[in-house]
């Protein structure tokens, strides 16, 4: 199953955004605080519970600086997946989006596609707002 978030324009250079996102500890700032619990993080990985009690864990899986960051599912995740954060410099700003590629069966796809799409869209808007507030 593949999901692409909506694209967002972030008021910062892609190099700065990549540096911010490459620390898993910073991902807390992009998640919907009212829908997660049990946040744990190091620089390389993080985990949290989403509504419904499902644990999601993310592990850094390399980068192609300054345009891509790769994350993969950790051992606590309910199914294997990869996330790619795409960052494209646009003058002094950056256009970015999240690409999800998960190995889910048809039944699970029906359950997780909408919530995951909403989560990734929330994360792109939260990143946009994070840098808008920093530059305000």
Key traits:
Alpha-D-Glucose-1,6-Bisphosphate, Chain A, domain 4, eight-stranded antiparallel β-sheet, 136 residues, alpha+beta, 2 helices, 40% strand, 8 strands
What does this entry look like structurally?
By secondary structure, the protein is α+β, with helices and mostly antiparallel strands. The protein has a single domain, classed as 2-Layer Sandwich (Alpha-D-Glucose-1,6-Bisphosphate, Chain A, domain 4), CATH 3.30.530.20. It has 2 helices and 8 strands, in the order ββαββββββα.
Summarize the structure.
With 136 residues, this protein is an alpha+beta fold. 28% of the residues lie in helices and 40% in strands.
Tell me which CATH architecture applies here.
2-Layer Sandwich
Q: Rough shape?
A: globular
The third-level CATH topology is: Alpha-D-Glucose-1,6-Bisphosphate, Chain A, domain 4
Look at the structure and give the mean pLDDT: 94
Provide a count of the helices: 2
End-to-end Cα distance, whole Å, is: 38 Å
Percent of residues in β-strands = 35-45%
Rg calculated over all Cα atoms: 14 Å
CATH class descriptor: Alpha Beta
Q: What ranges have pLDDT less than 50 throughout 5 or more consecutive residues? A: none
Oligomeric state = single chain
Encode the helix/strand succession as letters. Answer: EEHEEEEEEH
Strand tally is 8
Question: What count of domains describes the coordinates?
Answer: 1
Instruction: Give the CATH superfamily.
Output: START domain
Q: Pairing-aware structural class of the strands and helices? A: alpha+beta
């Amino acid at each position: 199953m593949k999901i692409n978030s909506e694209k967002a324009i972030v008021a910062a250079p892609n190099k700065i955004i990549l540096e911010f996102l490459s620390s898993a500890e910073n991902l807390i700032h992009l998640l919907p605080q009212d829908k997660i619990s049990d946040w744990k993080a190091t620089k390389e990985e993080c985990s949290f519970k989403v509504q419904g009690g499902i644990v999601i864990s993310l592990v850094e899986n390399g980068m192609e600086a300054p345009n891509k960051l790769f994350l993969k599912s950790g051992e606590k995740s309910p199914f294997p997946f990869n996330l790619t954060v795409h960052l494209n410099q646009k003058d002094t700003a950056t256009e970015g989006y999240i690409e999800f590629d998960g190995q889910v069966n048809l039944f699970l796809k029906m359950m997780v596609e909408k919530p995951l799409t909403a989560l990734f869209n929330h994360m792109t808007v939260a990143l946009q707002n994070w840098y808008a507030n920093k530059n305000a």
